[in-house]
Amino acid sequence: MDRPRVIRVHPQDNVAIVVNDGGLRAGARIPDGPVLPGAVPQGHKLALVDLAAGDPIRRYGVVIAHAARDLPAGAWVNEHNTVLPAAPALDDLPLATVRAPQALPVSATFQGYRNPDGSVGTRNLLAVTTTVQCVAGVVEHAVRRIRDALLPRYPNVDGVVALDHVYGCGVAIDAPDAAIPIRTLANIARNPNFGGRALVVSLGCEKLQPARLDLPEAALVTLQEQDGFGPMLDAILSAAETQLEALNARRRETCPVSELVVGLQCGGSDAFSGVTANPALGLAADRIVRAGGTVLFSENTEVRDGIAQLTARAATPEIAREIIRELDRYDAYLARGGVDRSANTTPGNKAGGLSNIVEKAMGSIVKSGSAPIAGVVPLGARAEGRGLLYAATPASDFICGTLQLAAGATVHVFTTGRGTPYSLEALPTIKVATRSDLARRWHDLMDINAGTVATGETSLAEMGRQVFDHILAVASGAPTWGERHRLHNALALFNPAPVT
Amino acid sequence: MDRPRVIRVHPQDNVAIVVNDGGLRAGARIPDGPVLPGAVPQGHKLALVDLAAGDPIRRYGVVIAHAARDLPAGAWVNEHNTVLPAAPALDDLPLATVRAPQALPVSATFQGYRNPDGSVGTRNLLAVTTTVQCVAGVVEHAVRRIRDALLPRYPNVDGVVALDHVYGCGVAIDAPDAAIPIRTLANIARNPNFGGRALVVSLGCEKLQPARLDLPEAALVTLQEQDGFGPMLDAILSAAETQLEALNARRRETCPVSELVVGLQCGGSDAFSGVTANPALGLAADRIVRAGGTVLFSENTEVRDGIAQLTARAATPEIAREIIRELDRYDAYLARGGVDRSANTTPGNKAGGLSNIVEKAMGSIVKSGSAPIAGVVPLGARAEGRGLLYAATPASDFICGTLQLAAGATVHVFTTGRGTPYSLEALPTIKVATRSDLARRWHDLMDINAGTVATGETSLAEMGRQVFDHILAVASGAPTWGERHRLHNALALFNPAPVT
Ligand SMILES: [Ca+2]
Ligand SMILES: [Ca+2]
Ligand SMILES: [Ca+2]
Ligand SMILES: [Ca+2]
Ligand SMILES: [Ca+2]
């Protein structure tokens, strides 16, 4: 058997996670720690010190439960010998109670594309956006022709991206919630990676008229004004040339990290997500914030049960109340659809060592680091201000990524344990593996291996620094695996309003 | 000025529509009809006979309103001199009151692909379906390689289609309404055009596990079991070869039209939709039904205000009650999202000659012809039985088309006035223009010009026969414009359940 190995995430934690394959047997001795009175499975928690009945169980630096009885150091801590905290009601939460940690400023730069509106992109892309799905087939043909026939003549342009979606017609466009997909589409086209030079392709009679997107500098092609399929392609290619001409003049220049907007997400998580990739990402996020940059974290249903930690970390009581409002609205949305939230922690989660829903949420929240939450980005809105922001999106990988694109993210970092080839086309997507096994097997998909934290080959601090450095390299133009393969997912709009 | 020209849709109608550009002046004489006492705009109705106050106004063979005062033959009939019928409540509708029209059987055949389960396809396609959006990027690469490297070796296979969608994870998979997208995806993969030989690409950890699709004869590739991107592509290509081998053995054979399933839809409609393309399609639909075939018509929000005509035409009271149940459920879905149905008839509709919402609905319903409604297809279900069926889908072109694909349609007929390049990849999509001007301008997109009905160059009966013949030709392999250009829209699932 390997040398016993555990991971403690936060210095104040009184439990740690077993790393070894197959878990640890009774009698195993933790280096600088207790001897185990009984076996503890892999991914599960053991007590680092003697705990008395009623003592708080601290993981991720927060109380995730209380001891149900006395537990000696080394004992397995699980859902049977702990007491769940009360369900987090929304009317009695701590508001901005945590003092911001000491944060020495960091000075760092990257090579970005500065835009006329002051924003900075990490890529130089021609966006071909659409007001309705009817035009998608024509746009697909046009994009292929732009890529093959035009791009070689505009060497400073990195690529062309079709912003394809199923919104725009056959929808209740004046329903109260329709504002969400509409502003999402408008803000996606304004993403800094597109340099303010999107091309809008409209059918003509759709409900989502181009004026609703309010994109004054975008070029517009209306298919119903063209005399057939051939002329449609010609019109799009001609408009594309005008925009490519302008985009081709963009050049990378040295920009402070304060101009960077990094969107964080996880998907296909496992027991190691919360101990390797996510905390390393949290350290990188802290570093970006200390450099004055912007970090977006998200995933309503994954933070919901750790909401007390978010409201406590809010920079002001008003920001805490905004977080509560967003999650309250999401609760109501789920309830309207008859969703039973109690099914949140699955048997698989518990078998993997997650004793309860607070612990599960903390494993996701830990990727946000420890900075104060400086603001909330509503669904589909563009992020305002800098620092760590909560972009209140669903956890669905595609919808979260689409909304972070709308929020103005210019780099996307995605942690995964079980593995997904997920990637966005308009946003370089850095994939971080939680386990070395996954990183080895998917060597041509995973950009960073955080699994070496679990085996002790790399310290969490070093891994945090690696992730930070990798973010700056990618922001400066280094391609991700997704970009190398030109491998990407579709966009997915969040539309809680009815279709018609 | 052109010779005065009007269109009467149904022999029992006592009003007709003015065709002439610019409308007709006072004094104009309708051939075999009245002299106009005043002007009537294009697309608007005139009385064909003297009407007394209280007389029913018949259009499409149904009562769309009553005369508010005496109206002489030739008078303009509009919303000011007619009385709207009562809003169609759902609790007092005629149930199966219309006697089925005399229907002489029609004998006709097409060249189709007969499947082991008895269904007949019109195309021989390899479907690569997906359980979750994570895999879409990999599938896109794989489909390109299948097309380029494998298809040339399987000459009897018409193509390969990626069934890409954003469902499958990050969704409330146990919410009551989740059954709709799940059975939609399962039934799409069972469409007769795929020969029972779909290939399912799964990630591994997604909520929509492949077993939920219940596709015993499908091949399965799970990406999380593969060692990276290269091996993922190899695994999909290898599974594709097995299925292509089987599909390549399929041959077209002579099949009766009773094996054909034709899905009807309209989109981007104009004032002529209800007088040229839709009634011609209605005659073609009647002919398919008389030949024992299956016709699906749809679009809840467009038939809602003509529901009395549907329930009256239902073959049995139980079928009428099923129609009512489906539309009642859709009313509730729209109400949950705060949609105001009273906005249905727009000022543009009225300016175009549509006096009220019943008349608007009838312009859409007329494409279903005059056969009795023999059954209702619930959302996402596969059609059972033959004859004219109401597939209770939203009107959204993409969602309606996707649900008709799930219902087992093997040919799609789409009428359009304003023009849309809409087309499905898995289902040959015949586009019918309502106006000659559109058909001329979009000569490389519109498959049939029904506009010649308005100008009298073609009778409605002849046009109905042309549409019928064209459906059989396309069912037998003649390519549509969409297929020639390989131009198609994305699928769009109807998912009224929440995302998470
Ligand atoms: Ca997540
Ligand atoms: Ca996610
Ligand atoms: Ca329609
Ligand atoms: Ca439609
Ligand atoms: Ca696509």
Helix content of chain A: 25-40%
Separation, N- and C-terminal Cα atoms of chain A: 61 Å
Q: What's the main sheet of chain A like?
A: 7 strands, parallel
Number of strands of chain A: 21
Integer average pLDDT of chain A:
94
- Most extensive interface, residues per chain? A-B, 70 and 70 residues
Distinct helical segment count of chain A: 13
What strand line-up does the widest sheet of chain A have? 17-18-16-15-19-20-21
- Percent of residues in beta strands of chain A: 15-25%
- The number of domains of chain A is 3
**Rg of chain A, alpha carbons:** 24 Å
Small ligands present = calcium ion
By helix and strand content of chain A, what is the structural category?
alpha/beta
Query: pLDDT below 50 for ≥5 consecutive residues: which ranges of chain A?
Result: none
The quaternary organization reads as homodimer
Overall shape of chain A: elongated
Task: Please give a structural write-up.
- Chain A has helices at 136-150, 179-189, 229-247, 277-290, 300-303, 307-313, 317-336, 347-351, 357-365, 397-407, 436-441, 460-475, 481-485, and strands spanning 6-7, 15-18, 45-47, 56-59, 62-67, 76-77, 82-83, 109-114, 120-121, 125-130, 159-163, 199-202, 219-222, 252-256, 261-266, 294-297, 373-377, 387-391, 411-416, 429-433, 448-449.
- Chain A is of the alpha/beta class and 500 residues long.
- A 7-stranded parallel sheet of chain A has the order 17-18-16-15-19-20-21, sandwiched between helices. A 4-stranded antiparallel sheet of chain A has the order 1-2-3-6, with no helix packed on it. Chain A has a 4-stranded parallel sheet with strand order 11-10-12-13, covered by helices on one side.
- In chain A, helix 1 crosses helix 3, helix 2 crosses helix 10 and helix 4 crosses helix 12.
- Chain A is elongated, with a radius of gyration of 24 Å.
- The first copy, chain A, starts with 5 loop residues before the first strand and ends in a 15-residue tail after the last helix.
- At the A-B interface, helix 1, helix 3, helix 7, helix 10 and helix 13 of A face helix 1, helix 3, helix 7, helix 10 and helix 13 of B.
- Bound molecules: calcium ion (5 copies).
- Residues 266-267, 269, 299, 302, 364, 395 of chain B line the site of one calcium ion.
- Chains A, B: One of its GO terms (molecular function) is galactarate dehydratase activity.
- Chains A, B: InterPro entries: GarD-like, GD_AH_C, GD_AH_second, SAF, SAF_UxaA/GarD, UxaA_altronate/galactarate_dh.
- Chains A, B: It comes from Pseudoponticoccus marisrubri.
